[in-house]
Automatic annotation (TrEMBL):
SUPFAM superfamilies attached to this UniProt entry: Nucleotide-diphospho-sugar transferases
Pfam families with a match to the protein in the record: IspD
Protein name: 2-C-methyl-D-erythritol 4-phosphate cytidylyltransferase
InterPro entries reported in the protein's UniProt record: IspD/TarI, IspD/TarI_cytidylyltransf_bact, Nucleotide-diphossugar_trans
Taxonomy of the source species: Bacteria, Bacillati, Actinomycetota, Actinomycetes, Micrococcales
Organism: Brachybacterium aquaticum
Keyword line: Nucleotidyltransferase, Transferase
């Protein structure tokens, strides 16, 4: 069984809205709700640990009530970074395995969660191939500093799953080193514990910018609406 850590603590600065992006509505439904509803339908997820941006607890509680989420939810205030938020949510997990997801990926499917759960390895993340070229650069001088073999790179997605003990131990190592990670698959891999990946879909869009919002609204259009 799994505790779901659902990251919902960002303020969504890059979307430029007057409220956290995960509370904005897409097709009339708050972005957060799409992931919540999918997770609520998965029997193996017995607890949802959900964080909220400082000052937005009431708004998040209202969403939970409005959409009658049945899985028990533990609310935790967000930390200063995504990394700090995960660290603060870990002690609230009641199961021995955790799934991490983020509210900003509303196109997550039941199959995404089930694929992770069906995998017998303890630490597994969805990742997708990089369909473009990523160059290492010096951001100060704007100089290209080398080249990367994209067949050896993957776009890290969520959801991801971990043995709770591995994730806790990896966060302890990261805290000692002082390094702040942008996500947890690389954090756990750097701790020396094996992390595997399975193919994620490019439909599992992360809503970061106003353009992403428009793309997500399009992808979430009701079945039967005309394609472009
Ligand atoms: C976690 C993540 O979505 C992996 O692709 C990404 O790193 C999040 O980036 P953000 O800058 O925290 O939105």
């Amino acid at each position: 069984m799994y505790s779901l850590i659902l990251l919902n603590g960002g303020i969504g600065e890059r979307v430029g809205a007057h409220q956290p992006k995960q509370l904005l509505k897409l097709r009339g439904i708050p972005i957060l709700v799409y992931a919540l509803v999918q997770a609520d339908r998965i029997d193996q997820i017995t607890q949802i640990v959900l964080n909220y941006p400082s000052g937005w607890r009431d708004a998040v509680e209202e969403v939970l009530d409005d959409y009658a989420i049945g899985t028990p939810v533990t609310l935790v205030e967000a930390g200063d970074s995504r990394h700090a938020s995960v660290a603060a949510m870990l002690p609230h997990c009641t199961e021995t395995d955790v799934i991490l997801h983020e509210a900003a990926r509303p196109l997550v499917t039941r199959e995404d969660f089930e694929g992770l759960i069906a995998d017998e390895r303890p630490n597994v993340a969805l990742m997708s191939p990089i369909p473009f070229t990523v160059a290492p650069v010096d951001p100060e001088t704007h100089e290209v500093t080398g080249s990367l073999d994209r067949s050896r790179l993957r776009n890290v997605q969520l959801p991801q799953k971990f043995a709770l003990a591995d994730l806790v131990a990896a966060h302890e190592i990261a805290a000692r080193s002082g390094r702040i990670y942008t996500e947890d698959a690389t954090l756990v891999a750097d701790s020396g514990r094996p992390v595997h990946f399975i193919e994620g879909s490019d439909m599992n869009l992360k809503v970061t910018t106003p353009t992403d919002l428009r793309m997500a609204a399009f992808l979430l259009r009701p079945q039967g609406d005309a394609d472009v």
